[in-house]
Amino acid sequence: RTQHRSADSPMIPTTQLQAVATLAARRAGEHVLANLHRRGDANSILRTDVKHKLDVEAQETAAAVIRAAYPDHAVFGEETCEEPFPENDYVWIVDPIDGTINFFHGLPWWCCSVGLRHKGRSAVGAVFIPEMGQMYEAACDGPALCNGAPIRVSETDRPELAMLATGADKWDLGEHAFRFMRKVSEIAQRPRILGAAAVDMCLVAAGKLDGYFESGIYLWDMAAAALIVERAGGRCEILKSYPGHRLSFLATNGRLHDACRNALLPLLNP
Ligand code: IPD
Q1: What is the three-class DSSP state of 249?
Q2: Residue 1: band (very low, low, confident or very high) from pLDDT cuts 50, 70, 90
Q3: 59 lines ligand 1 (CB under 6 A)
Q4: CA-CA distances (angstroms) from residue 187 to 183, 184, 190, 249, 267?
Q5: In a 3-state reduction of DSSP, which class is residue 8?
Q6: What's the longest Cα–Cα distance across the chain?
Q7: Is 100 in the pocket of ligand 1 (CB under 6 A)?
Q8: What is the number of the ligand 1 atom nearest to the C-alpha of 98?
Q9: What is the pLDDT of residues 51-93, one digit of tens each?
Q10: Ligand 1 atom closest to Cα of 198?
Q11: Which one, of 27, 43, 36, lies nearest residue 126 by Cα?
Q12: Cα 222 to ligand 1 centroid, rounded to whole Å
């Protein structure tokens, strides 16, 4: 297989890459939508997670779209995350169903996320929320869009007036996760847990949430959505990295970033 490795090879135009990202996310989401009657069809149901058959199928669906367009690119996804991270200039990062537990229980806040890293930098991203009929997307050199229309982060500049989303870190649902939820509740006007990291980030990009923090998400949860937040005028930051592609992650409208970061960082490095 040929690989795009030469240091000076120019990146494929982002318009082409973005079209593939949105098609892959849409096809994955459509596959899941066509199989809503199989919501309960899990491979395993754990205390903190559900491993769903449709997760595996949706990743295969997205990967097939990407491989048909770019056979020499690498695909890395939640369902194959035990494999070593690919060494390739182009690495597509897929979360076939982000918010799997929402999906399993029948809540509509789940999405299919496809991001592309070129030489380690985010190039394009697409997040499709099938039950809402919303496609969020961005390229590193273009605007953030929802269903083709430009979106922009909010202008809220005081945390006490902000709607901040967080999540129940599935790594540890005890005191560890609760410390962060308590802090988010303390600083925000209202805290929210919607249950799908990439959906939360798209809502930050669209100005409907002012920020999102979670103590433990994964690379595939943010690979597409972080670029969408940034291209909508917001700011994203990995506050801490852990083995296994696990991250403490903050996404905000930018204006609230330092205040959120300063409140949360001490909890990560006590
Ligand atoms: C999870 C969801 C959830 C968040 C977890 C994520 P998954 O992703 O985004 O909201 O709390 O940290 O891992 O497992 O449904 O793809």
Answers
A1: strand
A2: very low
A3: no
A4: 6, 5, 9, 17, 14
A5: coil
A6: 54
A7: yes
A8: 16
A9: 889 999 999 999 999 999 999 999 999 888 888 999 999 999 9
A10: 9
A11: 27
A12: 10
